[in-house]
Write a structure and sequence with these properties.
The complex is a heterodimer of chains A (751) and B (248). Chain A is α+β, with helices and mostly antiparallel strands and 751 residues long. Chain A is built from 22 helices and twelve strands. Chain A is 64% helix and 9% strand. The longest helix of chain B is centred in the first third of the chain and has 14 residues. Classes of the chains: A alpha+beta (751), B mainly beta (248).
Chain lengths: 751, 248
């Protein structure tokens, strides 16, 4: 170790320049920093879910849809609102990438007079007899609860993207931007408030929110770290040392990501904050140890040597345990999770290397006379008597904590693992408020696409098949009150039959020929762009049944998807699969959650092994583990009581909490075992507090402020992540500083 | 030298033809068949290459103020005996009646805008009905262009009927034969919608007859082809055979 310090001392300037240049060079790649928010990133392109979905897209054109809705309390069937709908329908059609626009005015109404059949836009201009139209619309089940509400005061326009470009996020973002521009223009012009929602709006918003968080919140978090460091140390070196490690580590990790061709997404955008957490802990322990030794009458080089010598092992061990913890994520089949796992694993190791090279190198530049002011806040360097206090009260402390843990832990029984893609967004965001408006006034904003397979070519026109759809819809609506609307080609056949065959006794015609002929007549009557090819496939074997549902939790989604599959299998000779982005989000949610929960469990097991190898003491293993699991369980318990569900943000925070809590525990025990060899129990505890207490408390303090920044994100998982992490980190600190010594005192101290 | 240059430019402008002239000449090449009886096969192909087939019998009579046609659906079986009678209205909305055998009734298709898909193909009815040059308006001179070593007149035409599915069509007419070979059709939003390719013609009694048309929808990546399996002209079809009464 001494030779290493000598080596560093000789080459410190070269080393500093070399590392800085390396970081700067690599950071050039950050100019290509890009974001993605598509559901696709969560799936292997060869996965069944993606293949089925792509097949659905190329067969029926996709389900990339924006919804624009507004309300006029005096009624939609008046000149101003109708003019607005007519103009917007036209404007939306003109946006590049838009394939089809469905609105109240261009709804294709089927009429018949004598033997004349007309399939035409419901409303051509605002001078028509709108009272009569209202009468028709409020009694048309294909319009009501979809295009208008019961009292005809709200309406929506669906903007569908072309399938070939719909997968492309840029198109999504472009159309969203255009829609927002038109919205702003028309809000000024009409005084209405327009609401934007729909699947495509979710995708676009995911990207926008990730970009916002990355460009605004992450730099803000860095600024907060720097300001806090300055307030604590009031010394440039106190700011420089930890800040250099943090900034260099995350620049290196981020450029590695870019060089490997990864884009940032809503999940990996958290990498910088994780890196900050890891890097700050490493550098703070080292730096504060140096501050401690500087107060002794020794040379600067000696102080650096002692600080490194006493902290090398704990820093190495904490880095390795953190690396191991996140490495479990890297084996995930879900790419963003694997990417995050690799990045944090690399980050932990880079932070370690920088801490043991750059930090001593910078400190060695200082001369012996350099006076570092002791930190103003919470100076524990000379603390005495804490060990004695713990010993006196060990029983009460342990009992108190046990009681609290039992009470709070009971809340775990109410804990739910769930979420929903709309709930990812803050209530103030365009897409969330839009979805809520649409849901309240018109129809459910989540759309599921059910692909019904008649099992043979031209089979979709068979009346038996169509009648099964009628039966299915009835059962579905009874069972799932969240579903507000269903639509398929069957509705058009029904309507044609009703309009054309005055003697009809059944809702659907009873011959396949009649169905085929109705569809021919209908499609010959349609204008370009309103074709049926998004409702039936080329071979006329498959039909698309779209259902609108109110926002529901993922577990409900999955249950419903299963039920639908089963119903068709059990009750019919046909098959059904649920497609579309809503179901993909549901699969994504559940697989991401499963992976994260699995990873946390794996990490816990690995940490147990690591703790055993580090301290080689199997009897005390439970004490090593308890302060690390307890914070997660406590936070889980509180969430259970509050009825909040565990989402992705909460699940990731568990990894961070585990990482930091384990660090604290390792630092605590490495100092404790060092001290107990020569000192009494009370003195040993005081030694731990004076040598590591500051670093533990300050690390937690700084991280708490840093993570708090994300509580203002519009992305709810980030907010949950921030809150849960901050609360749990502080609990972990409390447990490490109070419960841990008390347990040691009670079980091992009085020997 | 100067004179020669002047002369060439003069002759060039003398020989340059307006778009409308080219369109008329091109139409003349395929006109004069009086009446025809054809059998065709239509093949639909989606983006993945999955196919489906339709078969039609087409009877047509040429008319100075628009053609009359009767389409008899032969396949798929569920459309058997369904018939579509159309009377072309130059520059306007064609009159169409459909006979539905399942209802045993004739229904007039009275929609204003009938520019949608024909039999779920990428063709609309206007793509395969009469290509009378009077259905379009033209501006300027025909451009002379070369494509894959062949000389074409390239002209842009705008459908006169406001309810056409297109804002404009750009077509390539092969120079020596005056046959329409390619077209690019733009939707109402002025975006390229379809590419049409008249891949084969054959001459019957001095009149050029199209044998195969392939159309590709560039927006949804689906395509369709229409091929004439049998074709006879001067087929002695009487007006009464193409009347509403003949539908049932």
């Amino acid at each position: 170790m001494r030779r290493y310090i000598e080596f560093l001392d000789q080459h410190k300037t070269k080393l500093l320049i070399l590392i800085t240049m390396l970081v700067v060079l690599l950071s050039i790649s950050l100019k290509d920093l890009a974001f993605e928010g598509s559901y696709r990133i969560w799936f292997d392109p060869s996965s069944k879910i993606m293949k089925d979905y792509d097949k659905f897209r190329s067969t029926f054109s996709g389900d990339d849809t924006f919804i624009v809705a507004f309300e006029d309390k005096e009624g939609i069937f008046r000149e101003k609102p109708i003019t607005t709908i007519l103009e917007l329908t036209q404007k939306f059609k003109m946006i590049d990438g838009v394939q089809k626009v469905n609105s109240l005015t261009n709804y294709q109404q089927i009429r018949s007079e004598d033997d004349d059949v007309m399939v035409e836009d419901f409303i051509y201009d605002s001078k028509e007899d709108l009272k009569a139209k209202k009468q028709i619309a409020t009694h048309d089940k294909l319009i009501l609860h979809q295009l208008i509400n019961d009292d005809a005061t709200a309406t929506m326009i669906a903007v569908k993207l072309a399938s070939s470009v719909g997968a492309d996020e840029e198109v999504n973002l472009y159309v969203m931007k255009q829609l927002e521009q038109i919205r702003d223009e028309y809000e000024a012009k009409t005084g209405y408030t327009f609401y934007i929602s729909g699947l495509s709006a979710i995708t676009a918003s995911l990207v926008n929110v990730a970009v916002h968080d990355a460009l605004v919140l992450i730099p803000l978090a860095v600024v907060i770290v720097v300001v806090l460091l300055f307030l604590l140390f009031r010394d440039p070196i106190g700011v420089a040392v930890p800040a250099v490690v943090i900034v260099f580590t995350f620049l290196l990790v981020l450029s590695m990501q870019m060089l490997l061709g990864h884009k940032l997404n809503n999940f990996t955008v958290n990498i910088p904050s994780f890196i900050a957490a890891i890097a700050i802990a490493d550098s703070m322990h080292l730096f504060l140890a140096w501050v401690y030794y500087k107060t002794k009458k020794i040379t600067n080089k000696e102080a650096v040597y002692l600080a490194l010598k006493n902290n090398f092992m704990p820093i190495a061990m904490t880095s390795i345990t953190t690396a191991i913890g996140f490495a479990t994520l890297s084996i995930s089949a879900i790419e963003p999770i694997a990417t995050l796992g690799i990045a944090i694993t690399a980050g932990a190791l880079i932070a370690f290397l920088l801490s043991i090279s750059l930090v001593p190198a910078i400190l060695l530049i200082l001369n012996d006379e350099y006076k570092i002011k002791p930190i103003k806040f919470l100076n524990l360097i000379h603390s005495k008597g804490y060990g004695a206090f713990i010993v006196r009260h060990d029983k009460q402390i342990v009992l108190g904590f046990t009681f609290v843990m039992l009470v709070i832990g009971y809340g775990l029984t109410n804990l739910k693992v769930d979420s929903n893609s709309i709930k990812y967004f803050d209530k103030t965001t365009t897409v969330r408020s839009g979805s809520e408006f649409v849901e309240e006034k018109l129809s459910g904003s989540m759309i599921y696409e059910i692909i019904l397979d008649s099992t043979k070519k031209e089979g979709a026109k068979s009346p038996a098949f169509l009648n099964k759809i009628v039966e299915f819809e009835k059962v579905l609506l009874e069972r799932y009150p969240n579903i507000t609307f269903t639509t398929s080609l069957k509705d058009i056949v029904e309507r044609m039959h009703k309009v054309l065959d005055k003697n009809a006794t059944t809702a659907l015609p009873n011959s396949k020929n009649a169905v085929a002929q109705y569809l021919l007549l209908y499609s010959m009557s349609l204008p370009q762009g309103m074709e049926l090819n998004d409702k039936i496939d080329t071979q006329e074997r498959y039909l698309r049944l779209s259902i609108n549902s109110n926002i529901q939790d993922t577990s409900k989604d999955l249950e419903m998807i299963d039920w639908i599959d089963n119903w068709w299998e059990k009750n019919t000779d046909y098959l059904a699969t649920v497609q579309g982005q809503t179901s993909i989000f549901a699969y994504m949610q559940s697989s991401v959650m499963d992976t994260l929960l699995l990873s946390i469990s794996a990490t816990l097991v690995l940490v147990v092994f690591a703790m055993f190898f580090i301290f080689k003491n199997i009897k005390m293993l439970w004490i090593f583990i308890l302060p690390n699991i307890a914070p997660i369980l406590l936070v889980g318990g509180v969430m259970g009581y509050l009825g909040r569900s565990v989402d992705i943000g909460v699940a990731i925070s568990a990894s961070v909490i585990l990482g930091i809590a384990v660090d604290d525990t390792i630092h605590f025990f490495s100092k404790y075992f060092q001290a107990i060899k020569t000192m009494s129990f009370e003195e040993s505890i005081d030694y731990v507090i004076s040598h590591s207490g500051n670093a533990m408390i300050l690390t937690t303090l700084i991280l708490s402020f840093t993570f708090s920044v994300f509580a203002v994100s519009s992305f709810v998982p980030n907010v949950n992540f921030a809150i849960v992490t901050v609360v749990a980190l502080n609990i972990a600190l409390l447990l490490d500083l109070v419960l841990l010594p008390a347990l040691l005192s009670l079980f091992y101290g009085k020997k | 030298m100067k004179k020669l240059l002047l002369l060439t430019t003069l002759t060039a402008s003398l020989f340059a033809m307006s778009s409308e002239e080219v369109a008329k000449k091109s139409y003349d090449v395929v006109s004069g068949y009086k009446s025809s009886l054809s059998k065709t096969t239509m093949i639909l192909k989606n983006a993945q290459g999955v196919e489906n087939v339709r078969k039609l019998e087409i009877k047509k009579i040429e008319g100075a103020d628009g053609d009359k046609s009767l389409l008899n659906f032969l396949y798929p079986d569920d459309l058997k005996d369904t018939k579509l009678l159309s009377y072309e209205v130059i520059g306007g909305d064609d009159k169409q009646w459909l006979y539905l055998p399942s209802l045993k009734r004739i229904k007039r298709i009275s929609s204003r805008n009938k520019s949608g898909s024909f039999m779920a193909s990428e063709f609309s009815y206007e793509d395969i009905s009469s290509q009378n040059y009077k259905n379009y308006s033209y501006t300027g001179e025909a451009q002379e262009v070369t494509k894959d070593g062949v000389n074409y007149y390239k002209i842009t035409r705008t459908p006169i009927d406001a309810n056409s599915g297109y804002s404009k069509q750009v077509i390539w007419i092969e120079k020596p034969t005056l046959l329409v070979k390619y077209g690019e059709y733009y939707d109402k939003q002025n975006r390229l919608l379809k590419k049409i390719n008249f891949t084969a013609y054959k001459e019957i009694d001095g009149i050029q007859r199209v044998v195969k048309i392939v159309i590709e929808n560039v927006q949804n990546k689906k395509s369709s082809s229409l091929e004439w399996d049998e074709d006879a002209i001067n087929a002695n079809i009487s007006a009464s055979q193409l009347s509403k009464r003949a539908l049932k």
